[in-house]
């Protein structure tokens, strides 16, 4: 495997690990810094998570456009360098305002994922795009599995240890990238930076001018809101429905993440070659429909684990959609597109937890007219169905 390619995959994996590393210690850290109860810490945790997503929404299109103008290498390396400083800041922070500042900066540097996607689009031919985007998803899945496990272990050394570990990982990856990453934006594909199309709303308008892209971005948004039902309510749902312990919840998430990594990193390449991107988007969502339908009503935790391979098959949808849209834009718009997609994903991260948690609370509280802790999966199924309808209405010549 080429070293620049390995660096890009490592960047995405560390990006996912960096978030997961600090998850196990955040409640304790907030109580340590702010005082108060665990309930107070949960409120601050929500503020920190939302601020991260808001900054990612605002700045991903900007950095995507900057990478189209000035290159992937400087934008990616600068983001990684600032990420190192950000983790050190959070490790040293002793006030909530510094922690909040750290999350705001972290949301900006999270644009590494968008720039990595643009790099992957640059180096992939038309037939390789979906498979290589799948490799990015697999790297993220591996980081999603490793992050909380390593963070939980390091948390035994203190609430600051995972931040220092994340800083070291990011610094090592920055060093690797400095020596091995080559620039893929050439004078032929370079596009002048234009603020009018760099901010989120301007970037959306710019992408919407390309026939079919606006519809596919709606499909991507609805799919993202739907699929985030898992991180939004899984811990609460499985404890309420199956009486799972935190350890069992962690095991189930690790299994799901591992299966997603296998599907995106290994299986996707073959199904794309066999069925094509358009059919893979359709079939992947059908697997999600089956998984959501069962999870909404089942009462057996064993059956929920058995369903994991089926639900993980839906992981083919995102890279296939990403490949379809990447083929529809010019080479000098790849960073802009990936920035918009990252912003759309961040918007889904803001909306989905609030929506799904509210539905879960309404249908699982004492005295609920209908007791159905799995109701959020039905909401996700409905939203995904709307997205699939839009996708099917998109001309075949556009989404092929």
TrEMBL record:
Keywords, alphabetical: Membrane, Transmembrane, Transmembrane helix, Transport
One GO location term (cellular component): membrane
Parts of the chain that traverse the membrane: 42-63, 75-94, 100-121, 133-155, 161-181, 216-237, 249-268, 280-298, 304-324, 344-364, 370-392
Ion transport is among the record's keywords: no
Compartment list: Membrane
InterPro entries: MFS, MFS_dom, MFS_trans_sf, Sugar_transporter_CS, Tet-R_TetA/multi-R_MdtG-like
Domain Major facilitator superfamily (MFS) profile: residue ranges: 4-397
Purpose of the protein: Resistance to tetracycline by an active tetracycline efflux. This is an energy-dependent process that decreases the accumulation of the antibiotic in whole cells. This protein functions as a metal-tetracycline/H(+) antiporter.
Protein name per its UniProtKB record: MFS transporter
Classification lineage: Bacteria, Pseudomonadati, Pseudomonadota, Alphaproteobacteria, Rhodobacterales
